[in-house]
Amino acid sequence: MSKERKNRTTVDIYGQQYVIVGIESTSHMRHVASQVDDKMREMSSLNPSLDTSKLAVLTAVNAVHDYLKLKEEYELLEKELKNLKD
Amino acid sequence: MSKERKNRTTVDIYGQQYVIVGIESTSHMRHVASQVDDKMREMSSLNPSLDTSKLAVLTAVNAVHDYLKLKEEYELLEKELKNLKD
């Protein structure tokens, strides 16, 4: 059994409750949930005909896109740092 | 009207087709879609009772969490780089 302490919190995303469990603080989990809620509402206002499932998939697509772009920038910064240290 | 050239591609995520439009290359869009598809399938194997909509929301939650953690690391790296340059 893991000794790592897990936190549990209930969040509301797009009118539905979810129990989130993780090693992060509950405030971090709530912040993440509120960002997903915001993004889904934004996506819904742009595409009013989409159902919740498609809205959530497209929100996930946007989030993964943002992640991959940031990862590229992170790797550039890492390279720059390495060059400065060498 | 925007002069920026937009690309359009159809992707398959968790058995459903989506038309994705953006300035990114179609290969980037397909890569993002395949990551979301993988994450939804992984989430589904861990939580077989969840419906598609909840799976997609939790996938979005994980993606936003990953983004925020990477952003923290990015900001640390930026700070380190700034200190080295000063």
Automatic annotation (TrEMBL), chains A, B:
Its localization reads: Cytoplasm
Alphabetical list of InterPro entries matching this protein: Bac_CellDiv_Activator (IPR053712), Cell_div_ZapA-like (IPR007838), Cell_div_ZapA-like_sf (IPR036192)
Q: Chief localization class? A: cytoplasm
Q: Name one GO biological process term.
A: cell division
Q: What keywords would UniProt list here? A: Cell cycle, Cell division, Cytoplasm, Septation
* Subunit structure, as described in the record: Homodimer. Interacts with FtsZ.
Q: What does this protein do, in the record's words?
A: Activator of cell division through the inhibition of FtsZ GTPase activity, therefore promoting FtsZ assembly into bundles of protofilaments necessary for the formation of the division Z ring. It is recruited early at mid-cell but it is not essential for cell division.
By what name is this protein known? Cell division protein ZapA
Species, as recorded? Rossellomorea pakistanensis
